[in-house]
C-alpha cells in the first residue's frame, strides 16, 4: 500500500452528517414523547371530568388533545416515531372520545371519525372504554338506575360480539380483549344482584316491612356495587 494516500480512508464528513441526523432524530423523539404525555394527560383528565358530569370541560380538553395530535403526526411519520409513547397516547384519546360519545348518545364512536388512528389504536381505546363504562355502571347502580345499567350492558355485550370476529394474537390487544370479557361478566353479575335486591325490596314492601327498608336496600345496592368495582380494579391491576 502506498504511503501517500490521495483520499482519506474514512470520510469523516459523512459520519459528521450521520451524527447530525441522529441528533436531530433524538430531538424530535424527545419532542414527541413530551407532547404525547400532554395528550395522555388531557385525555385522562377528560375522562375524569366526564365521570363528574363536566361534559363541556371534557370537550375542551379533548379538542386541545386533538390539536396536539395533529401537530405531532407529521413529525412522527417523518422520523418513524409513532410507536411507543404516541401510540399509547392515541389509544387513551380514543378511549376518552369513545366514552364522551357514549355518554352523549349511547353509541360507539366509529373509526372513520378518528381518521388519524390506526385500527390497532382504535381497538385498544375501544377495549379500554369498557372499563370506563363499567365504572359508570357502578355509579348508576348506586342510584338504582336499572335502565342505564342495562344500556351499559347492551353496549358492552354488542361490542363483545363484534370483537369475537377478530383474531387477537398474544400481545397487548389480546390482554385488553380478555379484560372486556371480564367486564361484561361483572356487569351481568351486577344486573343480576340488583334484580335480586329489587325482588327483596318488593317482597318486604308487600309483607309490610319496616320503614327503613328503602334505605337498607340502597345500602345493599351500594355495597354490592362497590364490591364489584373493587373486583374489577383488582383484575385490571393483575392483567396489567
List key phrases describing it.
single chain; 240 residues; mainly alpha; 79% helix; elongated
Could you spell the SSE succession in H and E letters?
Answer: HHHHHHH
How much helix is in the residues? over 70%
Low-confidence runs: 202-206
What is the tally of beta strands? Answer: 0
The average pLDDT score comes to 84
Structural class determined from secondary elements: mainly alpha
Q: Supply Rg.
A: 25 Å
Share in β-strands:
under 5%
Secondary structure topology:
Layout: H1 12-51, H2 55-78, H3 85-105, H4 119-142, H5 146-163, H6 172-206, H7 213-239
Describe the model.
The protein starts with 11 loop residues before the first helix and ends with a helix. With 240 residues, it is mainly α.
Amino acid at each position: 500500500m502506498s504511503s501517500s494516500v490521495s483520499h482519506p480512508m474514512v470520510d469523516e464528513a459523512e459520519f459528521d452528517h450521520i451524527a447530525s441526523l441522529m441528533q436531530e432524530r433524538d430531538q424530535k423523539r424527545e419532542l414527541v414523547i413530551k407532547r404525547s404525555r400532554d395528550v395522555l394527560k388531557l385525555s385522562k383528565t377528560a375522562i375524569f371530568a366526564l365521570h363528574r358530569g363536566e361534559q363541556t370541560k371534557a370537550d375542551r380538553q379533548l379538542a386541545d388533545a386533538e390539536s396536539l395530535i395533529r401537530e405531532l403526526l407529521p413529525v412522527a411519520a417523518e422520523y418513524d416515531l409513532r410507536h411507543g409513547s404516541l401510540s399509547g397516547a392515541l389509544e387513551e384519546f380514543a378511549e376518552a372520545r369513545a366514552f364522551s360519545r357514549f355518554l352523549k348518545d349511547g353509541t360507539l364512536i366509529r373509526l372513520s371519525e378518528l381518521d388519524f388512528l390506526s385500527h390497532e389504536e382504535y381497538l385498544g381505546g375501544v377495549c379500554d372504554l369498557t372499563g370506563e363504562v363499567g365504572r359508570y355502571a357502578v355509579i348508576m347502580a348506586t342510584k338504582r338506575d336499572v335502565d342505564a345499567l342495562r344500556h351499559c350492558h347492551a353496549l358492552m355485550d354488542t361490542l363483545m360480539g363484534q370483537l369475537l370476529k377478530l383474531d387477537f394474537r398474544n400481545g397487548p390487544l389480546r390482554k385488553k380483549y380478555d379484560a372486556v370479557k371480564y367486564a361484561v361478566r361483572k356487569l351481568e353479575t351486577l344486573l343480576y344482584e340488583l334484580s335480586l335486591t329489587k325482588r327483596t325490596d318488593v317482597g318486604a314492601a308487600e309483607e309490610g316491612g319496616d320503614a327503613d327498608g328503602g334505605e337498607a336496600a340502597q345500602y345493599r345496592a351500594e355495597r354490592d356495587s362497590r364490591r364489584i368495582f373493587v373486583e374489577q380494579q383488582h383484575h385490571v391491576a393483575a392483567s396489567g
